[in-house]
Design brief:
GO molecular function: 4 iron, 4 sulfur cluster binding; metal ion binding; oxidoreductase activity
Cofactor: FAD
CATH class of the largest domain: Alpha Beta
Number of domains: 6
Helix content: 25-40%
Keywords: 4Fe-4S, FAD, Flavoprotein, Iron, Iron-sulfur, Metal-binding, Oxidoreductase
Structural class: alpha/beta
Largest sheet: 5 strands, parallel
Number of helices: 20
Protein name: Putative adenylylsulfate reductase-associated electron transfer protein QmoB
Pfam family, one: FlpD
CATH topology of the largest domain: FAD/NAD(P)-binding domain
Distance between the termini: 35 Å
Strand content: 15-25%
Shape: elongated
């Protein structure tokens, strides 16, 4: 594409009042770019000014106005390269004269000093914008050769059937895979379920039977019962899925092609999945996709993972004080199975269980936590099962002892109706003992709402065991990916399918695979069916986006995808290992093999590559590096005491919006700072930091999302990876005679806009104490 450049400066929103527009135009003239200004570029007249130039051939535009986060739809011009230069939030609104008095006391000179610093900042942003539009190109979407719109649903319970019915109603073909011989899942085994409509006071029959009828009646839904997924290879829009019977061994099982004898250590202990995967890679000399092609595999565009849960088992030793091991102390799951078959009875002798105690938490050593994998569901299950006791026996008594009683939404009505039942007793308390007695059991509870220890004679004790997700210790999806058959282990997720549910519910770390129901968190049937709809919509979005060649999330609609210059690839594997989404496999030579529709366009591979051979059409090592090099770094030849230059790589997902919001609230940060927005801190290549310091910049900081087990990173581990990379630069800086304190990384949440400028100002103060970069002026 032959480019014709134009720079457009908006003078509205206070920009023209604080900045010298003529000087900005002079900066544009340094590259002989055409430059125009207008008091309202986003208005009809301003847009017509730009469109008239586009009609005359201008196709590379630097629009110096407001933040890229606003008016993005207005300043989008087909067939043009566009960069948004943030003069409003990034310069004018984020810097106040009274917070930058300068080194002189005379007000007039201080005003002049302040305006000069602000002008330098705006000048640099114009230079950076011009440098970027020189280096980027209009992206062209990646188009799959073989494309499928079919959707695979793993799990035939209420969640899976709900997702299938929703997708089918939208016109998509669906396959349900259920490992049991019948559909329905756990709901089909239940006696009753919680109410789903007003007045929310009466239990209802499980909806599973109605769903099964609807599934069987749908011409769009194919059902495979008694079947599991052996492996899923390929990428969204082109998944190749191999099925098998439970327990069956076939060629395409995951882990792949590792002899049975090599799946155990010298002591005969079975190796875990990651250890087997390492052996597999060594056997095949890095060819982690040696069996990618399955000629008999079925094609699918997206996968909905609705595999459900299994009842937790309670350890007899850990919960001995609760009587675990006694025949009349059972879990809520065992109670449900008993109630499904008939009246509630004592397992030990089959006699009626008219006095039942429901224990909601372990209640040991003053700890008020619930059993593992519990939540609001187990609270509601206790109420539901207490209702069974009252239904079965007119003189039955149900006692619910809890540390937390959670009944979200309109289920509060059911809770209140149970409070009014004279046969139901509820109290907050700590169960300290469950002991055998002559006529059954005695339950002792302390710290109750009554303010005293109580003892209850019981026929049966029911413990609120949790709902363990099916993905705990079992990948279920069995992906034929280099990174392994399942998802990356995250401690805080503890087996749940790892969607970043705060920002992106239903999504997992594997693009095109969407989680719904109890594998995301403990859920009621009603919540699971709502989840099913969300996951179905996500799967449909994925299928359609993949077909158009655009990203699904979080950079929805992004047409770029990573381009590799393989001639210089050293096969170091860093890109494949660090990709948070498993978008890269290996080919037969061990070279990275991209799967573009798996990619979420975070750029982590670009930041990881030491050879700098990976880039995107509009975001590359060269484009950002050119922006870094375009910043003017004053030296002793320009000033007796040259201004500092601090460079900030700021994540566009949380940190950049936080700075914009700080600007809207007129919270200032130092005017010697230059901000470059990046897709994710994981995309920051250390060469940018080295270039900045080698050209004389005094410090570099990265500002992004919080990382760790409770991560907030949109791309899962970008901030974490950048933390590791920057920590390894200490020796390099020392060899250059630079302090490693000249580099810093900050964690920020999107709502901490007041904290972001404070972190920047503290870093600038630290750099000022160290003094200027000795490379300044070279």
């Amino acid at each position: 594409m032959q480019k014709k450049y134009g720079v457009y400066i908006c003078t509205g929103c206070g920009i023209g009042d604080m900045l010298n527009v003529e000087k900005l135009e002079a900066v544009a003239a340094e590259k002989r770019f055409d430059c125009k200004n207008h008091p309202c570029l986003c208005g009809e007249e301003g847009l017509n000014l730009i469109k008239a130039d586009i009609a005359e051939g201008t196709n590379a535009l630097a629009i110096a106005a407001c933040s890229r986060r606003v008016n993005f739809d207005i300043f989008k011009f087909d067939g043009c390269v566009v960069d948004r230069v943030n003069l409003r939030e990034g310069v004018v609104w984020s810097h106040k004269r009274e917070e930058f008095p300068g080194p002189v006391t005379d007000d007039e000179k201080a005003d002049e000093y302040f305006l000069d610093r602000i002008q330098q900042m705006a000048d640099d942003y114009i230079r950076m914008g011009m440098a970027r539009i020189e280096k980027i190109a209009i992206p062209e979407p990646y188009q799959l050769e073989n494309f499928s719109k079919k959707i695979l649903v793993i799990g035939g319970g209420v969640t899976g059937m709900g997702a299938a019915l929703d997708a089918a109603a939208a016109g998509y073909e669906v396959t349900i895979v259920e490992k049991e011989d019948t559909l329905g899942g756990y709901a089909a085994k239940m006696r009753r379920q919680m109410p789903v409509q007003m007045p929310f006071e009466s239990l209802i029959p499980p909806v599973a039977s109605d769903q099964i009828k609807a599934v069987e009646a749908s011409s769009k839904i194919d059902v495979k019962t008694g079947t599991v997924v052996a492996r899923i290879a390929g990428q969204p829009g082109d998944f190749t899925v191999t099925f098998k019977k439970p327990g069956e061994k076939i060629e395409f099982d995951v882990p792949l092609a590792v002899p049975e004898a090599q799946r155990y250590d010298e002591n005969g202990k079975a190796l875990d999945v990651d250890q087997i995967r390492e052996i597999y890679v060594k056997i095949n000399e890095g060819r982690a996709d040696v069996l990618q092609f399955d000629p008999n595999g079925s094609k699918y565009g997206a996968v909905i993972l609705a595999a459900g849960w299994r009842p937790a088992e309670l350890d007899a030793e850990a919960f001995a004080h609760l009587g675990v091991g006694n025949a009349d102390v059972i879990t809520n799951h065992q109670f449900e199975m008993m109630a499904k078959e008939g009246k509630v009875v004592r397992p030990s002798d089959g006699r009626p269980a008219k006095n039942v105690v429901f224990v909601q938490s372990p209640g040991k050593d003053g700890d008020d936590t619930d059993f593992d994998y519990c939540g609001s569901v187990t609270s509601m299950v206790a109420l539901k099962q207490a209702k069974y006791v009252r239904e079965d026996y007119a003189d039955g008594k149900a006692y619910v002892i809890y540390q937390h009683m959670r009944t979200p939404g309109l289920q509060e009505n059911f809770y209140k109706s149970m409070q009014q039942d004279p046969g139901v007793f509820m109290t907050k308390g700590e169960v300290t003992a469950v002991e055998s007695a002559a006529e059954g059991l005695v339950v002792t509870a302390a710290n109750t709402l009554l303010g005293e220890e109580i003892q209850i004679k019981a026929d049966l004790v029911v413990l609120a065991a949790g709902m363990v997700p099916a993905t705990k210790d079992d990948p279920v999806v069995n992906l034929a990916y280099r990174q392994g058959p399942g998802f990356r282990e995250i401690k805080s997720f503890d087996g749940y399918a790892d969607s970043n549910f705060i920002c992106f519910p239903y999504e997992t770390q594997r693009t095109g695979v969407y989680a719904a129901g109890a594998i995301r968190r403990s859920q009621t049937i009603e919540e699971s069916m709502e989840d099913a709809t969300g996951a179905a919509l996500k799967a449909i979005q994925c299928v359609e986006s993949s077909n158009r060649g655009v990203a699904v999330h979080p950079r929805s609609g992004d047409m770029t995808f990573p381009d590799f210059f393989f001639q210089r690839c050293t096969q170091c594997k860093r890109c494949t290992e660090e990709c948070p989404f498993g978008a890269l496999d290996d080919d037969e030579r061990g070279t990275p093999k991209p799967n573009p529709t798996r990619c979420r366009r975070c750029g982590t591979c670009m930041g990881a590559c030491p050879e700098r051979i990976i880039g995107f059409a509009d975001y590359s090592i060269d484009s950002v590096g050119s922006m870094v090099k375009s910043v003017w770094v004053p030296s002793d030849m320009d000033f007796d005491e040259p201004p500092m230059r601090i460079l900030g790589f700021v994540c566009e997902n949380d940190a950049y919006p936080a700075l914009d919001m700080a600007a809207m609230n007129r919270i200032s940060y130092h005017a010697d700072v230059r901000i470059i927005p990046v897709r994710c801190l994981g995309s920051v290549n250390v060469i940018w930091i080295k270039d900045a310091l080698s050209q004389g910049m005094d410090g570099v900081f990265m500002m992004g999302c919080k990382h760790g087990d409770d991560y907030q990173c949109h791309f899962i581990k970008g901030s974490e990876l950048m933390d590791v990379r920057s920590s390894k630069m200490g020796d390099t800086l020392t060899s250059l005679g630079l302090e490693d304190e000249r580099i810093a990384q900050f964690e920020i949440a999107i709502d901490e806009y007041d904290k972001a400028p404070e972190l920047i100002n503290k870093f600038v103060a630290r750099i000022e104490e160290m003094g200027p970069n000795p490379f300044k002026g070279f």
